[in-house]
Specification:
14 strands, 3 domains
Length: 497
């Protein structure tokens, strides 16, 4: 047991007695302890009312103790129909089990013996359809806040003994259970050891969600790019495990983490694998184009109108002149006003209740856009460009990457204002250098684009048919590189009479 004094962590004396522990626990109003009389002996029962299922206590404990003729604590385990029973003399173990939803039974005449039996209650929501990564085609199950339920959803999809789950307790105060998942014989041991060591090295008081873990174990803490995939879909984690990756689940978090990953995977929706490869490849290309459009279109507008008028086609010059003839603001301020208005609407819609947020987003966008054009603060051309850029940023399947795309537009805008297209090019070079240096669990973030992995390109910008993807990605360096026999996958055995 440890306490914190003036910001420092210090050990409590190891010889703490059960009486001292009970005195400390009874300071909390939801801890109760009472006498339990039998024909021969007096037992004491203690537990947290907020952590246990009282029905288990009255159904599986009290009746059997009263019926039995036990003379000591040691004789209780065979009598009670409870699966998880622990007999211990360690005070620290008593404390940990009580806080995990156990009931303690002891007798003052038998010092050093305490019986602990599990009666914890699970209060969590039911498995429902994904909200962030919703798909029209495919499974409609998402993770919940119960770790055991989430593990069940994954084991249901991967019913094999090689699926290993290693638990680590993280957080001095929260004692959060973190599970590391991988498939023995497929996953590279280096990836497993890297993730496990980073989790064990964490020194933090409290972990409320998997996002805490992401920020603490990612390779570059100063990068706006997510370096682990955050997903709420159990089918996506099951597919990643079968591919040779490592997954991370946190108790209390309705999302799981996948690593190592690369930039391309953040623009690949899991629904792509449920569609025809031609359709899926088209949608993927549209997403990549939408991201580039979202980042570059507004900076290019500012750069061209500020420095490079000669690049504007003659047929378009008149339309731009008319739209900006009454605008008193320079292009950069005009763009910033609209971009910030879009961000305000996004934040307002996200923080308000669902129905109100949708109304604010739609009505607010129409009212503010129309009013700003009629008031002469912004041009209608820029309003269309900013609206299309905002719409394009929503095509990113992973929410965290969408936030990054929203952020990096602003450095492009500022440099486009100061030095025109040269500024856009310089900002793009800095972005490319940053991505080249970025890693995920030690693996290059731009794979398979750089270093080039030609065989992995079959599931990068485009997705070739599944029958062409017999090998697992080279970047993962898996122990078993083959998924299936490619020749047999292409064979057709139609029965002909």
């Amino acid at each position: 047991m440890r306490k914190r004094l003036k910001g420092k962590s210090v050990d409590v004396e190891k010889d703490q007695t059960l009486e001292n522990l009970l005195a400390q626990l009874q300071q909390s109003s939801d801890f109760t302890i009472f006498d339990l009389w039998t024909d021969k002996h007096l037992f004491y029962v203690g537990y947290y009312t907020s952590l246990i299922d009282v029905e288990i206590l009255h159904r599986d404990v009290f009746p059997y103790i009263h019926r039995s003729q036990v003379d000591s604590i040691a004789q209780l385990p065979p009598v009670l129909p409870v699966e998880d029973l622990v007999m211990t003399s360690e005070v620290s173990q008593v404390q940990d089990r009580l806080l995990a939803g156990f009931i303690m039974i002891f007798n003052k005449n038998e010092e050093g013996k305490t019986l602990l039996l599990k009666a914890s209650v699970e209060r969590t929501r039911q498995v429902a359809a994904p909200e962030v990564e919703f798909s029209v085609v495919g499974p409609k199950e998402s993770f919940v806040e119960s770790l055991d339920t989430n593990l069940n959803l994954i084991r249901k999809r991967l019913p094999l003994p090689e699926l290993i789950v290693n638990d680590v307790i993280v957080g001095k105060l929260s004692k959060t259970r973190v599970s590391i998942l991988y498939i023995e014989g497929i996953t590279n041991k280096e990836n497993i050891n890297t993730l496990t060591q980073r989790i064990k090295d964490l020194d933090i008081d409290q972990v409320n969600d998997s996002s805490y873990i992401t920020q603490l174990i990612q390779d570059n803490h100063n990068s706006p790019f997510p370096q682990l995939i955050d997903t709420e879909r159990p089918d996506r984690i099951a597919a990643a495990l079968a591919e040779g990756k490592v997954a991370l689940l946190v108790d209390g978090a309705p999302h799981g983490l996948i690593g190592p990953t690369n930039l391309v995977e953040f623009f690949s929706a899991f629904e792509d694998y449920f569609l025809n490869w031609i359709v899926a490849s088209f949608f993927r290309i549209v997403r990549f184009f939408a991201v580039l459009f979202s980042i570059l279109v507004t900076p290019l507008y500012v750069a061209v109108l500020t420095y490079h008028y000669e690049l504007i086609p003659k047929d378009l010059v008149s339309a731009l002149v008319i739209s900006r003839s009454v605008i008193p603001l320079p292009p950069i301020l005009e763009a910033l006003v609209l971009e910030l208005a879009i961000e305000l609407l996004r934040e307002a819609g996200a923080r308000l209740p669902t129905k109100v947020g949708q109304t604010i987003g739609i009505v607010g966008g129409i009212v503010i856009g129309t009013a700003s054009v009629e008031a002469g603060l912004t041009s209608n051309v820029l309003l269309i460009i900013v609206a299309l850029a905002a719409l394009a940023s929503f095509t990113t399947p992973v929410y965290q990457m969408g936030n990054t795309i929203r952020l990096i537009r602003f450095p492009f805008l500022l440099l486009a204002h100061y030095i025109g297209l040269l500024g856009v090019a310089i900002c793009f070079c800095f972005l490319l250098i940053h991505l080249l240096r970025l890693t995920s669990l030690g693996r290059p973030f731009l794979e398979p684009l750089y270093p080039p992995r030609l065989t992995d390109l079959k599931d990068a910008i485009i997705r070739l048919p599944i029958s062409f993807q017999a090998k697992r990605p080279i970047q993962l360096q898996t122990e078993d590189t083959m998924r299936f026999n490619e020749d047999k996958a292409k064979e057709r055995h139609d029965n002909k009479e």
